[in-house]
């Protein structure tokens, strides 16, 4: 006799097969990913057009790119419009970095220039290398080398190596944490200025672009150093014409703006600087930490402008549920030519728009509304998406089914995804249906899983791209996907079409495969009668994070959290059972609303302590690294604080934050169950 669990499993599996294959729109989904619908030549053409000129937010070149995106949307039968905002951006006006190697030596003025490769007629439009929202000022001090500029690097300098960072100009390398946090950590250690460079150990090699994919010695990673999200002058509300704005002084006091000047430099410039530093070498490192005797004079002047930015929005109205939104987004603005970051993603979105047009011409109409968004000013502070989410907060809160983000869509082989966990299963299923662009004998999923037992899906607690406002401010479930991950010429002048054609995606098959897998997930979300969300995965993810807290000691009691997660698991099993054999439009709608709103329940109106804009209590950035994709950010912050203070009250505060998260998870269970107490 078969055990009841085995029987339940078979019934579940059968209903699952039925659930997908029975969808009346399923044959359209197969068509969408078919070879006849895929067009690598058109992807390449779109990418070439988008990356012709450097297109920083607020420039004429980026407005031209917006017009191009809009024209492709319109010719793909999307109803399109531009949503413009007036936002605060900064551009470089004056930069200099002068090194005095020793008291008696002559000062050396560093280059701060990237060597050109190729013959772009638009090379003069590349902005001088700088940090977005960097503080203007002229500072000087002895050089202290601080490795990756993490909290632990500064602790080691002070406690283990006895180095006084006060009054120094810190030189740190890119690669482990968000650059804005490097500046912040250096400031807290007492530094007067910061230079961040691209170390050959992390990004370079014996050969470099155009011979290899590695960063040339003169390459510089540009980027923002602002620690908040959205226009700094409109925290929490949209930057529409004539709106309320904070003064520059108020922005400085906000805690998110950098308080000391900084500049990004190349490996070549950094080498010159680091040769003038003596002292101890940290374990496992190669450069002495100083201070000095080399002295750096750093001068930076930026201008702050209120500039117009443009989000381009294209809509396909849903046939049965026009008021339920499946939102796909990617940013358009780039620090330079932006072939990987972000226009590989833009090319993918345009390919999806063109395939959806072909589907519509064959008679397909989505059940729910599909919205394609082309964001502006992501590079500054995820600004375009954040302003739009702030402006539409309540509409999104009541209607958004999911947000799907693609940014650096392709930089090489190897699929990877991050998501809120109720979408894990859907992503895996879609990856099982699309062929791996780098191996004709297997699917994306087969390559992704490799020889492991399961694939690892990342989470969305960081602020690395435009999903942040959707997840962390409103509580919309979300996905982010890419092929290739980190790449050495990131944010440099070398992130151009030639790099992509030679190294990132020589035949543009990875772009095509990304359009297939990303688009397929979107189609499932838009067309399946019952939303393909599974909260069992959410509960098991939370359980793993909760178990990590059990080792804390200090009489911290994790059991309220564990209990709330067990309830969530029960609620998830309950709703999965309810989904089987469900009938009636209103009943379907009611179940879908519960599936959609359970993510919202993970948010709290008051937000994280001292960072009230971040409403999600499970996914949010760590205070010490905005890229850090942690779960329970409020608990993490409280733990960091308690470790520092080690007082009874500070550990009680950790317990309080564990209770807060437990209560949010309990709200999610009630929503999933659809029951009032
Ligand atoms: C820094 O020095 C430059 C060049 O000498 C000068 O133009 C600028 O006004 C100075 N900035 C500040 C904030 O003092
Ligand atoms: C560190 O250096 C600063 C500036 O030179 C000085 O004012 C301070 O007293 C020094 N701190 C220690 C602990 O030596
Ligand atoms: C660097 O700045 C210091 C302090 O303002 C100044 O005394 C020194 O002359 C400057 N050095 C160079 C090479 O400009
Ligand atoms: C492609 O996948 C097959 C397994 O299906 C594997 O044996 C082969 O090594 C893979 N080829 C490459 C180039 O990775
Ligand atoms: C598209 O793929 C084909 C092979 O499938 C290749 O011959 C062609 O060069 C590719 N097009 C581009 C623009 O890379």
Automatic annotation (TrEMBL):
Domain named Peptidase M28: residues: 311-498
Every PA domain range: 139-220
Name of one Pfam family that matches: TFR_dimer
Listed InterPro entries: PA_dom_sf, PA_domain, Peptidase_M28, Peptidase_M28B, TFR-like_dimer_dom, TFR-like_dimer_dom_sf
Endpoints of the signal sequence: 1-19
Single Gene Ontology MF annotation: carboxypeptidase activity
Limits of the Transferrin receptor-like dimerisation domain: 556-672
PANTHER family: N-ACETYLATED-ALPHA-LINKED ACIDIC DIPEPTIDASE (PTHR10404), VACUOLAR PROTEIN SORTING-ASSOCIATED PROTEIN 70 (PTHR10404:SF46)
Similarity field: Belongs to the peptidase M28 family. M28B subfamily.
Protein name from the UniProt record: Probable glutamate carboxypeptidase 2 isoform X1
Domain of life: Eukaryota
CDD domains listed in its UniProt record: M28_PSMA_like (cd08022), PA_GCPII_like (cd02121)
Keywords: Carboxypeptidase, Glycoprotein, Hydrolase, Protease, Signal
SUPFAM superfamilies documented for this protein: PA domain, Transferrin receptor-like dimerisation domain, Zn-dependent exopeptidases
